[in-house]
């Protein structure tokens, strides 16, 4: 088995970071990405393949949508069975079963697998810049668009995550009790309050695009680190699945027009990584208005 997966590049969390592209000298990353997207979309069209189109340029044809839990986040343990092929000629360059974390693998896997719940079977179409760019590797030539048939066998909390989740839930419950807030307890670990009901009748599904008003605050200090409206654009697909786990779960509990406050454990938000104004292991309060389901 050649090491086609290994590449530690952090692509970030929804709304807080962006992916990096590896491209040839003399052509901009965007130009190369656009070339690859055209080639992928042409291949999909010519072969009658329906695929989810992510704003990053990754395309995902879902054969079977998993029902075994959430998509993986960067700290989960993930077990994946895969076959890797070249888009150009369909030749297989690697296959097997591998266990690790998203950050152990190429950027295209980090993006694609994070959009698939555990138990899913799908095909990922990955532009060259999210794979091995001009370098190639082994039998993978430079500037190769890669195709992976994948099955996410399992997604599990690490021991560190499980321990942190337990302490997070205690901290959130103490906060709610101290502030006399009556919240609904969700099995995932989030707590939530529907503060205003809208006129909608259905909750958005995992891959529906949404427009939301989105305020994020630190539970510990009430410091606001994000306050904006978010909707689909050229840089962000704004599908339910694109958001941090706690928001992903919360949106599926809401209907169009609803307003809700979510109390989210750090393990379902940004985890052990720190960001501007968000320390590591921060429990988060999200105030969300589900303005529109696209």
Residue stretches low in confidence (pLDDT < 50, at least 5 long) are: 1-19
Strand order of the largest sheet: 1-2-5-6-3-4
Structural class, please?
Answer: alpha+beta
Order of helices and strands: HEEEEHEEHEEEEHEE
| CATH class descriptor name of the largest domain | Alpha Beta
Whole-Å distance between the termini?
43 Å
Number of extended strands: 12
CATH architecture of the largest domain: Roll
| Helix residue percentage | 10-25%
Q: Rounded to an integer, what's the Rg over CA atoms? A: 20 Å
Outline type: globular
Written overview of the protein:
By secondary structure, this protein is an alpha+beta fold. The chain has two domains: 29-156, Roll (Chitinase A, domain 3); 159-293, Chitinase A, domain 3. It has helices at 29-46, 107-113, 159-178, 245-251, and strands spanning 52-53, 59-64, 77-86, 92-100, 121-126, 146-156, 184-185, 191-196, 210-218, 224-230, 259-264, 284-293. The strands form two sheets. The chain has a six-stranded antiparallel beta sheet. Strand 7 (184-185) and strand 8 (191-196) form a beta hairpin. The protein starts with 28 loop residues before the first helix and ends with a strand.
């Amino acid at each position: 088995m050649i090491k086609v997966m290994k590449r530690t590049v952090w692509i970030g969390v929804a709304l807080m970071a962006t992916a990096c592209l590896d491209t040839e000298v003399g052509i901009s990353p965007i130009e190369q990405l656009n070339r690859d997207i055209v080639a992928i979309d042409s291949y999909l069209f010519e072969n009658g393949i329906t695929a989810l189109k992510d704003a990053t340029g990754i395309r995902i044809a879902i054969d079977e949508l998993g029902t075994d839990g959430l998509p993986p986040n960067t700290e989960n343990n993930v077990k994946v069975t895969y076959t890797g092929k070249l888009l150009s000629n369909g030749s297989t360059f690697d296959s097997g079963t591998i266990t690790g974390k998203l950050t152990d693998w190429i950027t295209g896997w980090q993006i694609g697998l994070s959009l698939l719940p555990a138990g899913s079977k799908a095909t990922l179409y990955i532009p060259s810049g999210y794979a091995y760019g001009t370098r190639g590797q082994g039998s993978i030539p430079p500037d190769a668009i890669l195709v992976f048939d994948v099955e996410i066998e399992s997604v599990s909390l690490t021991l560190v995550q499980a321990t942190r989740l337990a302490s997070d839930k205690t901290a959130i419950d103490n906060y709610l009790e101290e502030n006399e807030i009556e919240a609904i307890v969700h099995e995932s670990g989030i707590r939530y309050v529907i503060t205003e009901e809208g006129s909608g009748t259905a909750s958005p599904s995992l891959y529906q695009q949404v427009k939301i008003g989105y305020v994020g605050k630190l539970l510990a200090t009430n410091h606001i680190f994000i306050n904006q409206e978010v909707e689909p654009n050229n840089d962000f697909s704004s599908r339910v699945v694109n958001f941090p786990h706690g928001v992903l779960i919360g949106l599926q509990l809401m209907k169009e027009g609803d307003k809700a406050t979510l109390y989210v454990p750090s393990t379902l938000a940004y985890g052990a990584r720190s960001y501007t104004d968000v320390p590591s292991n921060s429990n988060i309060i999200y105030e969300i208005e589900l303005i529109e389901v696209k």
